[in-house]
Write a structure and sequence with these properties.
This protein has 226 residues and is mainly α. The chain is built from ten helices and four strands, in the order ααββαααββααααα. It starts with a helix and ends with a helix. This is GPP34 family phosphoprotein.
Length: 226
């Protein structure tokens, strides 16, 4: 499972099948997760001092396919453009990402497509849980890290960092026994910790910051247009 798939499951209500986060933020967080999966796979990185491109740009380190269609399409898009800051890359990677992930999860029997109508006229679609066992396991792992205090695996640190960037840690771990402020504090400690190699750590920091920046820019644009 991709980080983006885990995030989408955590941020979709099992019963209603609707996202618990607004679409703009959700799409940007999912795009950030795809970038982190590529970083963990050694395909992309964030440039540092002394490189041919300016520091802080998302660059392709290895263009070879990963074998996953979602990651390979994202890798192709990153390679096709000039190196740019991650926050400039995320909106492009977000295009059609959520529908693709929903289709994959439905085909695996994890979600199911539910058709409906609003006021008996306007068609709607939702994706309630069909098999929540994988999501339950992911949530248990997050509980062990953030509530019990187990050291996170790099993948868990990346997941927590992205959830924190979207402000969703307290919602995902509702009923944990810890208040919202303490959960956020622990999540930010994890996000700032040393739980991965230098390259992945650098990517987690950059992508988390980029996701927050992109979300903020989207919120400002939306408020300006209203």
């Amino acid at each position: 499972m991709l980080l983006a798939e885990d995030l989408l499951l955590l941020l979709t209500d099992d019963a209603s099948g609707r996202p618990t986060l607004d679409g703009t933020r959700l799409d940007l967080v999912l795009a950030g997760a795809v970038v982190l999966d590529l970083a963990v796979a050694g395909r992309v990185d964030v440039s540092g001092p002394g490189e041919p491109v300016r520091p802080g740009r998302l660059v392709v380190r290895a263009p070879s396919p990963t074998g996953d269609a979602v990651l390979d399409e994202a890798l192709r898009r990153v390679a096709a453009r000039r190196p740019a800051k991650p926050e400039a890359v995320l909106p492009g990677l977000a295009k059609q990402l959520r529908p693709t992930l929903l289709t994959r999860l439905t085909e695996r029997g994890i979600l199911r497509a539910a058709e409906g109508r609003v006021l008996g006229i306007f068609p709607t679609r939702a994706w309630p849980a069909a098999d929540s066992s994988h999501e339950d396991g992911v949530r248990r792992g997050l509980h062990e890290v953030l509530v019990v205090g187990r050291s996170p695996a790099p993948r868990e640190a990346a997941l927590i960092s992205l959830l924190d960037a979207a402000g969703q840690v307290p919602k995902v771990l509702a009923g944990s026994g810890l208040d919202r402020r303490e959960l956020r504090r622990r999540a930010r400690d994890i996000a700032a910790g040393e739980f991965a190699g230098a390259a992945v750590r650098r990517a987690i920091e950059a992508v988390t910051a980029a996701t927050m920046a992109a979300i903020s820019a989207g919120a400002v644009a939306a408020s300006g247009g209203s």
